[in-house]
Amino acid sequence: MILAACTIIAGCNNNDDKKTDTTPIVAKKPAIMQPFRFHKLIEVSPGNDFDVLSWGRGSQAVGSFLILHSDSSGMKYNTTTSDLDGSIVDVYNSDMDLDGNPEILIQAKATDTTNYAVIYAFEFTNNKANKLDFPKLTSSQKKGYRGNDNFYIKEGKFMREFPIYDGDSKDAKPTGAKRLLQYGLRNNEFTVQQISKDSTAKSNTKTVATPVAKAASTTKKTTSSTSSQKSSTSSKKKKKSDESTSTTHKKKKKHHHHSSDDN
Predict the structure, then answer these.
(1) Is residue 115 in some structural domain?
(2) Burial class (CB in 10 A: 0-12, 13-18, 19+), 66
(3) For all residues of the chain together, what is the average pLDDT?
(4) What is the CATH number of the domain that holds 118?
(5) Structural domain range at position 43
(6) Which of 166, 168, 162, 169 has its CA nearest to residue 203?
(7) Torsion sign over Cα 234, 239, 242, 244
(8) Confidence of residue 50 (pLDDT cuts 50, 70, 90)
(9) CB half-sphere exposure, 117, CA atoms < 13 A
(10) Residue 19 belongs to some domain of the structure
C-alpha cells in the first residue's frame, strides 16, 4: 500500500512538471549574417517579391543597399544597388500614381544628431528600376523641424509626420504640435501637400496681436482728432457766416438811412 501511494504521488508530480514545460516558446527572429545589417521582404503580388537589404563591413554609418527583385512568374531577376547614408529604418511599398507599377521607398536615418530622415525611392516598370528624387523640406516646412519622422502609407499616399519644436537650436523644446505632409506621385515626380495646420502660424498671430491693438487705439485717437478738427472748422465756418450776416445787415441799414435823406 505504501509503495502504491508513493507511485501515485510521483505520477502526479510528473504531470505537474509536464504542465510547466508546455509554455509556448517564442520563435526568435533569424539573425542576419554579416556583412548584411538589414533585411525586409516586400510581397507586391504572388510571385512578385522585393528583398531589400543593407550591407557593409567596418562601419555602421555608411554602406550600401540592395533591392533584389524576383519575378518568378516571368522568370526574371534584377538587382538595384546604391550608396547608403546612415542605417535603414523601414521599407514601404505603394502605387501612388495608380499606374500598376510598384514603388519601393526606403527610409534611412542619417548619422547626425537630429535623426534627419533620408528617403530612397524607386518605381519599377517592366522589371526596371527608375530612381525618383524625393523632395527636400521647404523653408516653411522645415521650420521647427528636429527629425524624429514617422512615415506610413495611408489610402495609397506616403505620409510624413514629425513633431514641431520652438526653435532650430539644440536646446529647442517640442511644442506638442505635429506637422503632417502627404506625398503623391505624378509623371514620375513627387507632389507634396501639407495636411495639418502649422502651429507656428498661430504663434505669429499672437505676436502681432499687440501691434494691432495699438493700431486700433491710434485709429481711435486719429478719428477723435479728425472729429475735433471738423467741429472746429464747422464752428469757424458758423462764426464767419454770422459775421457775414451781421455785415450784410449793417449795409442794408445804412442804405435805408441814405434813402431817408434824399426824401
Answers:
(1) yes
(2) middle
(3) 77
(4) 2.40.128.460
(5) 31-207
(6) 166
(7) negative
(8) very high
(9) 24
(10) no
Which of 152, 132, 204 has the alpha carbon at shortest distance from 162? 152
Residue type, 80: T
Q: How far is CA 84 from CA 35, 39, 40, 104, 135, in A?
A: 14, 14, 16, 15, 17
Domain count, the chain: 1
Q: 79 phi and psi, to 5 degrees?
A: -125, 130
Residue where the block lists cell 517640442: 174
Distance separating alpha carbons of residues 95 and 155, to the nearest angstrom: 10
Residue 166 lies in a domain: yes
In this structure, of 12-26, 49-63, 230-244, the range with the lowest mean pLDDT score is 230-244
Planar angle of CA 185, 186, 190, nearest 5 degrees? 45
CA distances from 45 to 123, 129, 188, 196 (A): 15, 17, 22, 33
Alpha-carbon distance of 164 to 201, in angstroms, equals 12
What's the average model confidence in pLDDT over 105-128?
Answer: 87
Q: Which residue has cell 526653435?
A: 167
Q: What CA–CA distances, in Å, run from 7 to 3, 12, 16, 18, 219?
A: 6, 9, 15, 17, 104
pLDDT band at residue 205 under the 50/70/90 scheme: very low
* Across 13-31, average pLDDT: 63
Instruction: Decide if 215 is inside a domain.
Output: no
State the pairing for strand pair 150-154/87-94: unpaired
Q: How far apart are CA 132 and CA 121, in angstroms?
A: 5
pTM check: above 0.70: no
Give the C-alpha separation, 154 to 211, whole Å.
Answer: 42
Q: For 142-180, write each residue's pLDDT tens digit.
A: 999 988 899 999 999 999 999 999 987 878 899 999 999
Q: What is the dihedral of CA 183, 68, 44, 60, to 10 degrees?
A: -50
